[in-house]
């Protein structure tokens, strides 16, 4: 029977682990993470699913430590898979699998290598992303491509909505590629380095809105950091404002960014047009257009950029 050690976390880790088990791959060991203190855990648990199937689960702080390397070698894996595992795996660990080490990445490589590729793709206004299964090398996200599956990004999709599509794309990709890997006949395709792009990690402070970038840029930021991520933020007349869902609106903008009730909607006016605020929090209290109108009437509130 084919054996694989899995390094996994998050929803992609859960779905891909279940694909392996569904195709009869023996998984003697799963390496995952302890949830970070203070992190909002809105995703599924690899550890829980592994334990349901009687698989040993460990959560080392350093996956490249000698003790962990010895445990992986003792498991005698044919393959090593990384599914949304957050740490880089070193050369010795990658070499511990007799038939190769493979990673599932949440973009169409070589585009969007690095961290949180879905959020970056939404922020940059991409119309497509996907999942890519590729060989693991010491350089992150750079190995030969086994298979990939694209998914659309709609103009009003939030990052979590796109991520759910990417989870399905990852499942489809692994399901399709696994027989070839097991048979020893994968058709690897080298990545075109000229098309490569790399993006780093994001923090809650990166949700600060710069209204002067215009309607589309603000809308894309709102989508990229919408809940369950921390959200986009700014101030209106000095009061804290969180924008959780938006849509571009017809009509003129304003030279000075401002928040105004117009035709039963709350709109943020930028230099190049208007943005409807569908879900928002103003000063921790006002959460819909009717409440804004009741408090401020037709008066405009000056919008300032968010501050980390």
**Main pleated-sheet profile:** 7 strands, mixed
At the first level of CATH, the class of the largest domain is Alpha Beta
**Largest sheet, spatial ordering of strands:** 3-2-1-4-5-7-8
Query: Helix amount, in percent?
Result: 25-40%
CATH architecture group name of the largest domain: 3-Layer(aba) Sandwich
The shape, in one word, is elongated
CATH homology superfamily of the largest domain: Formyl transferase, N-terminal domain
Number of separate helices: 8
Portion of residues in beta strands equals 25-35%
* Whole-number mean pLDDT: 96
* DSSP E strands, number: 15
| Unreliable parts | none
List the helices and strands and how they pair.
Layout: E1 3-8, H1 10-22, E2 26-31, H2 46-52, E3 56-58, H3 66-74, E4 79-83, H4 91-94, E5 101-105, E6 113-114, H5 117-123, E7 128-135, E8 145-152, H6 159-183, E9 198-199, H7 215-225, E10 232-236, E11 239-249, E12 258-262, E13 265-270, E14 273-282, H8 289-296, E15 301-304
Parallel strand pairs: 1-2, 1-4, 2-3, 4-5, 6-9
Antiparallel strand pairs: 5-7, 7-8, 10-11, 10-15, 11-14, 12-13, 12-15, 13-14
Helix pairs in contact: 1-6, 5-7
What do you see in this structure?
This protein is an alpha/beta fold and about 300 residues long. The chain folds into two domains: about 200 residues, Formyl transferase, N-terminal domain (Rossmann fold), CATH 3.40.50; about 100 residues, Formyl transferase, C-terminal domain (Methionyl-tRNA Fmet Formyltransferase, Chain A, domain 2, Roll), CATH 3.10.25. About 25% of the residues lie in helices and about 30% in strands. The strands form three sheets. The protein has a seven-stranded mixed beta sheet. A six-stranded antiparallel barrel has the order 10-11-14-13-12-15. A two-stranded parallel ribbon has the order 6-9. Strand 12 and strand 13 form a beta hairpin. The longest helix is centred in the middle third of the chain and has 25 residues.
